[in-house]
């Protein structure tokens, strides 16, 4: 790097750094062999001055000193008479005497150093102002030296400006700005004065080795003083910056704390306001709730008082109704008792007692006798297996009735000579017929006619005992066929009485009970309206039917008796009666009209006008009989319009 400077070059920052860490030996020799002089010289420049510029100035000084010590063709004197470095001595003296030497601020140091650097560069290149000089070895600078000088001056001025701007950026108030401007002008005037003094004293200055050592020592002292001053100033700046920073953060914290206090106070005030509003709202709600509760209590008390009054009134009315009902019931019982003494009711009761006793005889005598005899039991069960499926296969066709061949089973049982076997089989046949009526006829009334035809033919085939057994079982399952309604016996429980009038049990619904009773009653009416015809047996073909074999209770005379008794108590008071009348008209209405003509019309007109329209029949006002009464009314109105009832569907047997 030294060679580049010696030839007029400018070192780079990297070369300057290497020079600072390991300066060349010739420069150390020039500076008195002390490498610390270079570091001391560097301290003269502010931090904003580039490293290459600072080393460039130091090396220029070293080069001038070396030239003065080296022999020159223009200077043939001895070495000990080589003039010393007058500019170093003058600079030292001037700094010692200058009133501004105590100012070690970055701006002043930078300006002074740059002015000195310009002066020394002019001296080095021979461009200083004219005057007497004893250094005849300096040559007149050429054009290239001038361009180099201009470049270096421009760079030095730029670096000085940057140093001034850096120093100005540290100060922030107007006093610092004015002081920096004043110092800059003072430094420039001082630099010009130094330059003139140096030029005036330079021709007379001669250097010696001892003087050079003194100069270097002076430089070291000056550099040390400057370093200490710079450190003190930096420390002062740092302390001032720290104080300002602490004050700034203190102000910031105070502002934040004040803002937090204001926010907290505002939040507390808002919370207090909301709390007071909430308390007021709670109080208002409590008052409203208390008012509402009192109002509800008042309304509830009024409602309870009204309910008590209404309940007392209802109880009184209920008691009056019950008393009236008891009186009416007592009167009705007494009236029924009187009416039961009539001939018709007496006959119905006798008939009921007769058929009931007949059923009891079968139950007590016939059934145990068959059960105790294995042979009879086997014969009875064989007949049972043959009869049961055939009854369910009956259709309204002569050919189908003949094909079923129930007659063969009965003839075989009658031919055994054992009456108990024969009665047991007839009882089972009656059960099958009534069961079929309960299940199928209740749904389809036309299914009653083939069952009635089987009964009629079996009676005409001389199985007269079937009439007794079948009627006994009909009365047991449906007492309405007589018609008769038995009264409960003394000490009889409800379950047994319900079974006596045809109910299965207490849980059976009214609709199911009415349906079963109407199915059995339809089967009985179908038997009564069936016209006797020749049975399908071979020996009876072409012969007149033996109608005398048909018992009285299965003849058409029973149709008139049933109509007459159903208009008398107790049937006139029962809710099932209108259902039975409707079934009567559906199954046997046309037959009854054909047999009894005007007499039947009188009975039906009495039923329609007095029983339904005048509501003299108790069932006409009964809620359970509303639908049945309406249907019966439609049938009677149709009869009045048309003058007759239509033949029941399926009443005529097919081939």
TrEMBL record:
Residues 10-27, 104-113 have a biased composition (Low complexity). This is mRNA export factor GLE1. Belongs to the GLE1 family. Its main location: nucleus. Residues 1-48, 64-161, 190-216, 288-345 are annotated as: Disordered. InterPro entries: GLE1, GLE1-like_sf. One of its GO terms (cellular component) is cytoplasm. It is found in: Nucleus, Nuclear pore complex. GO terms for biological process: poly(A)+ mRNA export from nucleus; protein transport. Keywords: mRNA transport, Nuclear pore complex, Nucleus, Protein transport, Translocation, Transport. The keyword Signal does not apply. PANTHER family: GLE-1-RELATED, MRNA EXPORT FACTOR GLE1. It comes from the Eukaryota. Pfam families: GLE1. GO terms for molecular function: inositol hexakisphosphate binding; phospholipid binding; translation initiation factor binding.
């Amino acid at each position: 790097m030294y060679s580049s400077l010696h030839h007029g070059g400018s070192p780079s920052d990297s070369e300057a750094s290497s020079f600072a860490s390991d300066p060349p030996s010739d420069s150390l020799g020039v500076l008195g062999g002390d490498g610390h002089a270079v570091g001391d010289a560097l301290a003269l420049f502010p931090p904003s001055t580039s490293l290459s510029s600072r080393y460039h100035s130091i090396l220029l000084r070293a080069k001038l000193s070396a030239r003065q010590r080296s022999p020159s063709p223009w200077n043939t004197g001895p070495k000990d008479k080589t003039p010393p470095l007058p500019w170093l001595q003058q600079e030292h003296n001037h700094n010692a005497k200058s009133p501004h030497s105590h100012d070690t601020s970055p701006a002043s140091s930078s300006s002074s150093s740059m002015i000195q650097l310009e002066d020394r560069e002019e001296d080095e290149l021979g461009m200083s102002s004219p005057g007497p000089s004893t250094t005849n070895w300096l040559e007149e600078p050429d054009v290239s030296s001038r361009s180099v000088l201009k470049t270096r001056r421009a760079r030095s001025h730029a670096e000085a400006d940057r140093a001034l701007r850096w120093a100005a950026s540290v100060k922030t108030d107007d006093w610092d700005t004015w002081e920096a401007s004043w110092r800059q002008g003072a430094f420039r005037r001082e630099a010009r004065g130094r330059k003139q003094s140096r030029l005036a004293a330079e021709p007379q200055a001669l250097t010696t080795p001892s003087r050079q050592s003194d100069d270097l020592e002076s430089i070291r002292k000056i550099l040390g003083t400057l370093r200490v001053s710079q450190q003190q100033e930096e420390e002062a700046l740092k302390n001032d910056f720290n104080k300002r920073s602490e004050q700034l953060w203190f102000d910031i914290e105070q502002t934040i704390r004040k803002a937090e206090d204001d926010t907290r106070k505002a939040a507390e005030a808002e919370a207090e306001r909301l709390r007071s509003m909430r308390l007021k709202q709670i109080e208002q709600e409590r008052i409203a709730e208390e008012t509402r509760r009192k109002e509800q209590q008042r309304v509830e008390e009024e409602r309870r008082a009204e309910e008590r009054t209404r309940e007392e009134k209802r109880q009184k009315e209920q008691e009056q109704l019950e008393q009236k009902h008891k009186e009416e019931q007592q009167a009705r019982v007494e009236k029924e008792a009187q009416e039961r003494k009539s001939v018709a009711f007496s006959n119905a009761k006798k008939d009921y007692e007769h058929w009931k006793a007949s059923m009891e005889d079968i139950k007590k005598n016939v059934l145990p006798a068959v059960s105790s005899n294995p042979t009879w039991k086997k014969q009875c069960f064989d007949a049972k297996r043959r009869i049961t499926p055939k009854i369910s296969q009956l259709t309204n066709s002569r050919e189908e009735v003949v094909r079923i061949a129930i007659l063969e089973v009965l003839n075989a049982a009658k031919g055994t000579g054992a009456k108990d076997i024969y009665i047991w089989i007839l009882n089972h046949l009656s059960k099958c017929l009534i069961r079929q009526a309960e299940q199928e006829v209740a749904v389809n009334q036309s299914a009653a006619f083939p069952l009635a035809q089987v009964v009629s033919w079996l009676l005409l085939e001389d199985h007269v005992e079937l009439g007794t057994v079948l009627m006994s079982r009909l009365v047991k399952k449906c007492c309405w066929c007589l018609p008769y309604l038995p009264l409960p016996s003394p000490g009889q429980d409800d379950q047994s009485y319900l079974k006596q009038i045809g109910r299965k049990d207490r849980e059976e619904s009214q609709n199911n009970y009415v349906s079963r009773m109407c199915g059995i009653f339809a089967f009985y009416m179908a038997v009564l309206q069936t016209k006797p015809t020749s049975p399908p047996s071979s020996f009876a073909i072409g012969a007149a039917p033996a109608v005398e074999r048909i018992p009285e209770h299965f003849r058409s005379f029973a149709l008139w008796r049933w109509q007459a008794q159903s208009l008398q108590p107790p049937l006139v008071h029962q809710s099932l009666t209108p259902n039975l009348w409707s079934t009567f008209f559906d199954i046997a209405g046309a037959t009854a009209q054909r047999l009894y003509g005007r007499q039947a019309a009188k009975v039906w007109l009495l039923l329609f006008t007095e029983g339904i329209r005048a509501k003299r029949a108790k069932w006409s006002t009964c809620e359970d009989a509303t639908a049945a009464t309406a249907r019966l009314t439609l049938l009677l109105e149709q009869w009045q319009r048309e003058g007759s009832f239509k033949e029941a569907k399926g009443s005529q047997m097919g081939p």
